[in-house]
Amino acid sequence: MVVDGRVAEYGTFNEPFREVNLLDVELEVRGSVLPRALREFRLKEWEHFGVINDEFYFGMVIFDAKFMGTSFFYAYDRTTGDFFEHTRNSIAGPLRVARELWHGECYYRHLGYIMEFENRLDSGLHRLRAQIKGKKRLPSVEAELFVHEDLDRYQPLVQVSPVSRNRPFYTHKNACPVEGRVVLGGREITLDPARDVAVMDVQKTYYPYRTFWKWATFGGYDSGGRLVGMNACENFITDDEVYNENCTWVDGVITKLSAARFEFNQSALMEPWRVYTTGGEMKLDFLPEGERKGCINAGVLMSDFHQPFGKFSGNMAGPDGTTVEVEGLFGLCEHHLARF
Known about the structure:
Largest sheet: 14 strands, antiparallel
Order of helices and strands: EEEEEHEEEEEEEEEEEEEEEEEEEEEE
Low-confidence stretches: none
Distance between the termini: 24 Å
Shape: globular
Oligomer: single chain
Helix content: under 10%
Strand content: over 45%
Radius of gyration: 19 Å
């Protein structure tokens, strides 16, 4: 991705990078190139997976903000509306985010809490494992999941956008079948790749100190048995008509979209949202059912995070100019303001 200190090229790529060497970029601040240790500190990295089942939605992340590490696992029972979450934060905790997806590991390990993601893109597979001890009214979690990202069948979104000159924003996203099992306390949920879908969000970015994003994604099988998905984001990228991460997937075929826009009530995020593109290729309504949220305010550091989840309806572009009808597919939106 970086050659001789410079980003080789910005845009959307046909295949994943073999080497995501963002620490090699000559990142300048006030005319001076930051030393590698400070570049490491400024690079924010995470892997996030959302797992969609007819009965449950599971969200999980390993996030390295450098000044702090975070991991969470949450479960939403779609049949009852029940929600619970296990979260861990650490100043200098035992965590790692993989440098690349072909053969890399992520982990967050703490007493009574283990989250591990093994990326094996060379085998078309990601293995997700969680082992979390129950506490108070929160059930224990034991999970082993396999996300099938076969590049011959499911084309990922691979995007590098300019935050500013030679300051890259990198993301890799996909919607893929998932199988395995999750045990919540004494209840076991079995995932079937013919029915269940995982949406993945991998990111490494030199974020500006003050930042924001609005994000939406979903995945599922439509009435015709096709695996369909969507990703849309509105953030700080200035020329988002050219550089954006907006796309749809239909049976693994990706279709790029124009800039995304979000309309919602910031003081009442559980009210309906509208997500659309400036070119008219996508018009979706989002009806939240629940929300994962978190707020950290430590003076110079701040994070106001809201991730409502629920159902999308509307229409969007598919391959070769086709239109895909979206009828109640499950996913999430996100509204995040931060200083970090």
